[in-house]
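Sequence, please.
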């Protein structure tokens, strides 16, 4: 099944906000076996919205329209849908009752303009918004399906899942997509292994690098997905850390919580990014005690207890300093595990012996202290992200093996 996305809003067209909805929807739809072949952005202009709708419906059987469903005068998507599809807007009393109830509970004065959200094209199905006001709309006409979603990211995410469940219930998807996430192998190594795995399967697949991770996207018949997953797990072993929306930080968090272990971080080159990833996970206070950003040499020495002898003899970009940082933060914050990063994010600071993209990850536990070397080749921000992911992967492997 092929589809197109239409995003409505001046702020989207002018680049005033990042269109995170587009990235989310494309990934979600791909994972449900729905190909996204075209993405269009238009201003809050009735004529432009209608023209874009008519254009997309000429080529696609499924079109998602995002934004423009609110109560204000520049929310024009409902009217555009009505005119483009020649379906008059009808007032839905039960929907209006629900919208008023939510407004009352929020302590918001109910105004006449709120009523706009209760008008939907004739014959459309609506799905109530579990986290907002404007519902999702599912409109069928002439063997075409148009789905309208609110533009607020949280609302769009919640409703898009509900819409897809409804659509999949009506029509079996021809293919499903799984994304297998791998760390510790080069993209070329992943590709070589995949070619061996898929000799007996008829699948479409591809790889992409994401912050040092390699994502393997596989599109196959739903009846094959389970067997494919077993083969991928067998081939990649511990290099495979997650599937679909699983992240390293979530996987590590589950392992720490399951083992009842606490963690502290000492960061130099990642500048707090490692701690940020860890604390992005809800409930991370169950296992994360805290962290130190020790960017300069004297902070490494005075706060974490890194010896000046090690700094002078080996430089801060070394196994020795990484290990002392990890042990220092473990003792300082009284955690079961200390995890550290020290390296060269670039673009300056590298040498032939210590190039840009080099990072050392230290791991201190009750069993002892280790360090690991990684090399990446991204820009400064990309290297920092990869460094943080490398540290998480070091910790993940330790937790799996011990």
């Amino acid at each position: 099944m092929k589809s197109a996305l239409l995003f409505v809003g001046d702020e989207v067209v002018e680049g005033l906000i990042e269109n995170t909805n587009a990235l989310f929807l494309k990934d979600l739809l791909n994972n449900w076996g729905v190909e996204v072949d075209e993405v269009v952005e238009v201003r809050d202009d009735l004529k432009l919205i209608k023209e874009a709708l008519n254009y997309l419906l000429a080529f696609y059987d499924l079109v998602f329209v995002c934004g423009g469903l609110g109560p204000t005068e520049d929310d024009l998507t409902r009217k555009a849908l009505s005119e483009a599809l020649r379906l008059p807007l009808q007032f839905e009393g039960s929907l209006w009752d629900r919208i008023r109830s939510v407004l009352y509970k929020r302590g918001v004065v109910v105004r006449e303009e709120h009523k706009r959200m209760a008008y939907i094209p004739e014959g459309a199905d609506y799905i109530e918004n579990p986290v907002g006001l404007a519902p999702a709309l599912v409109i069928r006409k002439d063997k075409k399906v148009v789905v309208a979603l609110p533009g607020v990211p949280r609302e769009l995410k919640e409703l898009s899942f509900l819409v897809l469940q409804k659509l999949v219930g009506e029509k079996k998807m021809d293919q499903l997509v799984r994304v297998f996430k791998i760390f510790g192998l080069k993209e070329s190594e992943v590709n070589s292994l995949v070619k061996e795995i898929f000799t007996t399967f008829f699948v479409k697949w591809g790889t992409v690098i994401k912050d040092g991770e390699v994502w393997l996207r596989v599109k196959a018949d739903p009846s094959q997905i389970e067997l494919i997953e077993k083969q991928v797990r067998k081939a990649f072993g511990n290099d495979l850390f997650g599937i679909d929306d699983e992240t390293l930080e979530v996987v590590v968090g589950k392992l720490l919580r399951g083992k009842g272990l606490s963690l502290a971080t000492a960061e130099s080159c990642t500048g707090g990014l490692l701690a940020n990833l860890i604390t992005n996970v809800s409930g991370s206070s169950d296992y994360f005690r805290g962290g130190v950003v020790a960017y300069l040499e004297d902070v490494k020495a005075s706060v974490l207890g890194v010896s000046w002898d090690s700094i002078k003899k080996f430089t801060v970009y070394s196994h020795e300093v990484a290990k002392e940082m990890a042990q220092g933060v473990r003792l300082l914050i009284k955690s079961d595990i200390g995890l550290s990063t020290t390296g060269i994010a670039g673009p300056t600071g590298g040498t032939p012996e210590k190039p840009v993209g080099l990072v050392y990850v230290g791991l201190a536990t009750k069993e002892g202290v280790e360090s690991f070397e990684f090399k990446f080749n991204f820009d400064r921000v990309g290297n920092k992200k990869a460094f943080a992911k490398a540290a998480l992967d070091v910790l993940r492997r330790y937790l799996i093996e011990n």
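The first strand starts at residue 2 and ends at 8.
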